[in-house]
Write a structure and sequence with these properties.
10 helices, 0% strand, 81% helix, mainly alpha
Length: 255
């Protein structure tokens, strides 16, 4: 194997580890993976997205196991979110060819940015009280998450975490739920990619291993960081990623 090939593998593994660390710790990180693979590692976007979606399956299982071991997952809530999100993920994959992706990216970026700004506002309580949410609402939230995640290729956490935080759920609870919900989204997307033969298994395997390692350490870190600090980190990340998405969309429109 040439030095160039080895350096590419190291880059891909590094990018996967960093993204996994963010996913495990704050539930947000998948949004940086595909752009990094495309612009840093030089991988085609049609190859990068399927490989990343496959990798989210293993990383989601890994991070979910850590959160479950620490009893940070509300299983009843997760169940209803997954019931709503699974069929919607298939619908989102089908709708890719119909909707304008730039419009969807703009909505997603705005949602992320506003959620982060709202979360950075001073709170009367250090941590939200995890209010009881109706099952019907959870089904809708799950459906929106599955649909938008499948449609944009970002994975479930980027969509779900801002929504749950805006509904006054605790940050650690929101991140834990996002780990579970990303599984049906990633599985649905991967199933479609296998049917159409667009999955690079070698790249997917490297990403799955590196993402899983990063997710495991990130999930451990999420339970070690003080809750107030974790809230600030997540909120700041939402703001930065919101600006990133909107800025990237602006460049596309101007170009």
């Amino acid at each position: 194997m040439s030095f160039v090939a080895i350096s590419e593998l190291v880059w891909i593994a590094f990018l996967g580890t960093v993204s996994g660390l963010m996913i495990g710790c704050i539930g947000i990180g998948g949004v940086i993976l595909v752009p990094a693979l495309v612009f840093v590692a030089g991988i085609g976007i049609h190859i990068a997205i399927p490989a990343a979606m496959f990798a989210y399956i293993l990383s989601g299982i890994t991070a979910s196991a850590v959160f479950a071991r620490n009893k940070s997952i509300e299983w009843e809530t997760a169940t209803w979110l997954c019931i709503g999100g699974t069929p919607a993920a298939f619908a989102g994959a089908w709708a890719v060819s119909i909707f304008d992706s730039r419009l969807l990216a703009g909505c997603l970026g705005l949602l992320t940015l506003l959620s982060g700004i709202n979360s950075l506002r001073p709170q009367k309580l250090a941590e939200p009280a995890n209010p009881k949410i109706l099952h019907s609402v959870l089904l809708v939230v799950g459906a929106v998450t599955g649909f938008l995640s499948s449609l944009t290729g970002t994975g479930g956490p980027l969509v779900l975490v801002p929504i749950l935080i805006s509904m006054r759920l605790a940050v650690l609870t929101s991140v834990g739920l996002s780990q579970i919900v990303q599984l049906p989204v990633a599985i649905a997307a991967t199933a479609g990619n296998l049917v159409y033969g667009k999955l690079d298994l070698a790249l997917a395997a490297i990403l799955a291993i590196s993402l899983s390692g990063g997710s495991w350490y990130g999930a451990k870190l999420a339970h070690a960081v003080p809750r107030a600090m974790l809230r600030v980190i997540v909120s700041a990340a939402l703001v930065l990623i919101g600006f990133f998405i909107l800025g990237n969309l602006g460049r596309q429109l101007m170009g």
